[in-house]
Amino acid sequence: MDAWQVGPITLTSRLILGSGKFQDFAVMREAIEAARAEVVTVSVRRVEVGAPGHVGLLEALEGVRLLPNTAGARTAEEAVRLARLGRLLTGENWVKLEVIPDPAYLLPDPLETLKAAEMLLQEGFVVLPYMGPDLVLAKRLAALGTATVMPLAAPIGSGWGVKTRALLELFARERPGLPPVVVDAGLGLPSHAAEVMELGLDAVLVNTAIAEAKDPPAMAEAFRLAVEAGRKAYLAGPMRPREGASPSSPTEGVPLGRPG
């Protein structure tokens, strides 16, 4: 698959994996390998507090490039603190920025996200902000210098699919003026990943749909193939829909109209 750029980092895989919710580390490793993922996100807060099921997480992810995230942050200040800890824990200078004060729907706070992004950029971080499908906010973040924008397809972990498609189409339309667009949250099936990749967006981040599948490694492979198919379809230049039918076989010599 063609390479893409996240700040100074060149990637070939367009499928980023989350590390949460797997039944154990062995299954997680199998899924990562099946997805051929180059990057896996890791929650700094869970590592920091040694939450059950996360003790030894960093060791289990050895050899994989980690993307620390600020999950659990409710304010810009909390996010900045977690980002600093993530840099110390992983040695990585990039961060997936999440600022989520809403416990019911886990929707990101646009104002605190913008504030945190500015603070982190001033400290030299490569910032990948998670956000709602708000094109105005995306342009503001891009103007600050974020390495990506990461609009949601649906609420985190819902598996609802591409409920924000009409708004994501605007991101695709404005893509030349934006950093890479990574669709994050809500994808439940490989077909959902293919759908957003066919729009011309750059990558997807998937966790729950893979971790909670009956066979996570098989689902990870399915998502990988869907991402590759969606990207290839976009690059191939899909046909434009027509208002009516168009025969695929020659019509010369075929009587027109309805049978008498």
UniProtKB/TrEMBL annotation:
Catalytic residues, chain numbering: 96 (schiff-base intermediate with dxp)
Transferase recorded as keyword: yes
Residues annotated to bind 1-deoxy-D-xylulose 5-phosphate: 157, 185-186, 207-208
Keywords: Cytoplasm, Schiff base, Thiamine biosynthesis, Transferase
Main location, first listed in the record: cytoplasm
Free-text function comment from the UniProt entry: Catalyzes the rearrangement of 1-deoxy-D-xylulose 5-phosphate (DXP) to produce the thiazole phosphate moiety of thiamine. Sulfur is provided by the thiocarboxylate moiety of the carrier protein ThiS. In vitro, sulfur can be provided by H(2)S.
Protein name: Thiazole synthase
Lineage: Bacteria, Thermotogati, Deinococcota, Deinococci, Thermales
